[in-house]
Structure formats: structure tokens, C-alpha cells
Design brief:
- The complex is a heterodimer of chains A (118) and B (116).
- Helix content of chain A is 0%, strand content 52%.
- Chain A contains no helices and 12 strands.
- In chain A, strands 2, 5, 6, 10, 11 and 12 form a 6-stranded mixed sheet that branches. Chain A has a 4-stranded antiparallel sheet with strand order 3-9-8-7, with no helix packed on it.
- Chain B has 116 residues and is an all-beta fold.
- Helix content of chain B is 0%, strand content 55%.
- The chains are: A mainly beta (118), B mainly beta (116).
């Protein structure tokens, strides 16, 4: 079974600085998807960024970017110019390609709580 | 645009009482539907998913069950709640296979369940 590991339970960053959240995963598949979700205090899960494993180019979404290292099975999230609103739990998630009768089942890591300080 | 509604937002129930959490999706047809549970300080655990009406797959054995009586309605139930059922429950949807090659999950706002 696939597993997702986030080894940093908590991280802290100063406003306007850059922070990187780590994520590693284990799979025997060659093609799959990876996601980062944000869960603010409201506890709503918000998609931050996604990456297809067959794409070598790292995904970017405004201030958010990933460093995808397929051979190392690593998928880190970089937040640039951190803002107070970035404070949240961040979850890394893995998904296989869909097969008949299945669905987009995500396997989540345990999360990293990000604090943003002034 | 698609929206997902989940209710209630908060629920306090005694041990042994029944449970019914409801989730509906608007703006899409034949979505894949999911129930996740998030225990305090932990990640999300997939409980059930459904690829169509009446089709339910269970990921973990437990005291809970799920049903999909209509295309865009997903219900999480229990006949008798246990203390260990306390947690934060999230409903989610994604595009069906063939329509969303890279479809992420879209989550509802969640239900905080406390079993006393």
C-alpha cells in the first residue's frame, strides 16, 4: 500500500520569508498524482497545488511551488513571501491512476502545522 | 460551478445513539463521493467511497456505514455510536473516471462529531 510521510509536525516562518515543507511517499507505481492541501483553522480542505508524476516540470501556483524528485519519491512544497493567511495545516497526498470501478482515493500524510510570525 | 454541502457542522451525541451525516453535491453528475475521518492531530483516513448510486466501497472495518440513495447524495450512518467514533468527518467529491484525468478531491466544510 502507498504511504505518505510528512516528517515535520510543525514549522514556523516569518512573514515575507520562504518556507519549505517536506513530503516523501512510497509507491511501486510509475504514474500517479501528488497534491498539497491546506487546512486553515476553519478546517476546510483547500487544494493548493497538484503534480502529475509523468511531468518533469515542477508545478507552480503563484507563491506556491513544488520540488518533485521522482527518483527520491520526494514532493516538497515551497511557500514564498509567506503571509499571515498561510498559517494552516498542510497535507501532502498521493493518488494512483484511476482503475475501473475505483475512484480518486487519496492517501494523506499526517500534516505539517505552519505558523507565520510577524 | 460545483458546490458541496455537508451537515450538520457540529454534533454531540451520546454513546449508543444513531448517527446520520448527509452530503450533497450540486453542479455535476455522477461524481465520485467520499467520506473521510480526521482524528485529532492526525491525517485524513478514507472511510468509504462511491462511484455510483448504490455502489459503496469500504476502506476500513468499523462501526459506520455509508449509502448513496441518489446520484449526488452521500450519507454516513451508524446504528450505535462508540466513543471512538468522535472526530472530524469530511465529505468530498471528484469527477468520475474519464472526465477528470487529474481530478483532485473537493471537500465539504466537515462535521465535528463528539460522542459523549
Amino acid at each position: 500500500a502507498q504511504t505518505v510521510t510528512q516528517s515535520q509536525p510543525e514549522m514556523s516562518v516569518q512573514e515575507a520569508e520562504t518556507v519549505t515543507l517536506s513530503c516523501t511517499y512510497d509507491t511501486s507505481e510509475s504514474d500517479y498524482y501528488l497534491f498539497w492541501y491546506k487546512q486553515p483553522p476553519s478546517r476546510q480542505m483547500i487544494l493548493v497545488i497538484r503534480q502529475e508524476a509523468y511531468k518533469q516540470q515542477n508545478a507552480t501556483e503563484n507563491r506556491f511551488s513544488v520540488n518533485f524528485q521522482k527518483a527520491a519519491k520526494s514532493f516538497s512544497l515551497k511557500i514564498s513571501d509567506s503571509q499571515l493567511g498561510d498559517a494552516a495545516m498542510y497535507f501532502c497526498a498521493y493518488r494512483d491512476l484511476e482503475n475501473t470501478g475505483t475512484a480518486s482515493k487519496l492517501t494523506f500524510g499526517t500534516g505539517t502545522r505552519l505558523q507565520v510570525t510577524l | 460551478s460545483q458546490t458541496i454541502h455537508q451537515w450538520p457542522a457540529t454534533l454531540v451525541q451520546p454513546v449508543g445513539s444513531p448517527l446520520s451525516l448527509e452530503c450533497t453535491v450540486e453542479g455535476t453528475s455522477n461524481p465520485n463521493l467520499y467520506w473521510y475521518r480526521q482524528a485529532a492531530g492526525r491525517g485524513l483516513q478514507l472511510l468509504f467511497y462511491s462511484v455510483g448510486i448504490g455502489q459503496i466501497s469500504s476502506e476500513v472495518p468499523q462501526n459506520l456505514s455509508a449509502s448513496r440513495p441518489q446520484d449526488r447524495q452521500f450519507i454516513l450512518s451508524s446504528k450505535k455510536l462508540l466513543l471512538s467514533d468522535s472526530g472530524f468527518y469530511l465529505c468530498a467529491w471528484s469527477l468520475p473516471r474519464g472526465q477528470g484525468y487529474n481530478s483532485p478531491l473537493h471537500f465539504g466544510n466537515g462535521t465535528r462529531l463528539t460522542v459523549t
